């Protein structure tokens, strides 16, 4: 009798599950067929119930799409698994030769570790370490070791005209202030040039200030640089009527780092020849002075919460460093192979059927399917230690990151944790939520061929609200 009651319970339970699944499918089918957005664009959707292990819904889930920044899901999950939570980015300071009576008879060296969070304060610590070593003069070279990366400072398929925006810095193992300068312009006396402050301070860039304070006839304020000729002159023109700011990338991040390091050394009274900067590998005989270390989770959080491209590419580069046979001159191809091997051996997906070009999703050549991205989400969920770190770094709907302004009402608020993605023509969302029946759900939505991101985001938010309310 007990066995019959047990079977009856299971029958009723699974009947309810199937009814809920059918209702979910009908609602999503209705939304797809009626939303005006999809009359001129495409969408791929896949939804998985992590609690029951069953797929709830799919629509064009195996088609290939450009992922935009949900590609960072691939990078993040792979990095957490292969690098581990305790991995650290390192920028190392050392010297070759000997220090005698305040003179370094040799070379002062900085070895880049592709730390995307290395800021001006960190460089101040490098300078302090040089002073603490008793060095007053460097007689040899100021060496920048950037052998961790090949000479390609952008990835294949990156849009050249995204520069000089801060979201596309020139990649290098030596990055200062994310390869950018922060510019602030404030009005002075009417008719006079505006006041300009640039951080970090350096003699690597120049300023051409042709702005005019409080004179509307001077035209709209413009802050840019001469990027078409790979110049580093900050050009400011137009009317300054109130405090304004902009962050711009600079050409050649590695030289920006080393020239600013030399500049700061000289300001502290440490003599270094201006023409002493060279880029090469540091010898094994170099003596360690200082190491700046950055925890993985700091980089991971910015990559996912803020959808930061530099942080994602830094993670991608570390994968090539750890997984490649040779840690010198890690290329994009080396990193791609590590990602592909993980995809094949850990997820069971053939990398030949997809195209993973970079770590951030910036490249126009990336192609994935919604089902592939879902496989990464589900893999993370099945590995609790990895999942905790990954889940904590995802934006929370209506609260923070790139979801702070979305789903601020309804049951999706504070419930959905997901990675967003936006490039021209693409809008995507991939992550997790909890439905009202307590089930954990993973999902991927990729909208393609959309002229404006807002309608696609509204569509995605509707899908999330439907999934949350699924009972």
Provide a compact summary of the structure.
The protein has ten helices and 18 strands.
CATH superfamily of the largest domain: DD-peptidase/beta-lactamase superfamily
Give the biggest beta sheet: 7 strands, mixed
Q: What number of structural domains do the residues give?
A: 3
> Roughly what is the average pLDDT, rounded to an integer?
94
CATH architecture of the largest domain, by name, is: 3-Layer(aba) Sandwich
Question: Low-confidence parts, pLDDT < 50 over ≥5 residues?
Answer: none
Give helix and strand order, one letter per element, not per position.
HEEHEEHEEEEEEEEHEEEHHHHHEEEH
Q: Determine the strand fraction and express it as a percent band.
A: 25-35%
- Number of continuous helical runs: 10
Residue share in helix: 25-40%
CATH class term of the largest domain = Alpha Beta
Radius of gyration: 26 Å
CATH topology of the largest domain: Beta-lactamase
Terminal CA distance reads: 30 Å
Structural class: alpha/beta
The backbone outline, from C-alpha atoms, is: globular
Number of strands: 18
Supply database-style keywords:
D-tyrosyl-trna(Tyr) Deacylase, Chain: A, seven-stranded mixed β-sheet, Beta-lactamase
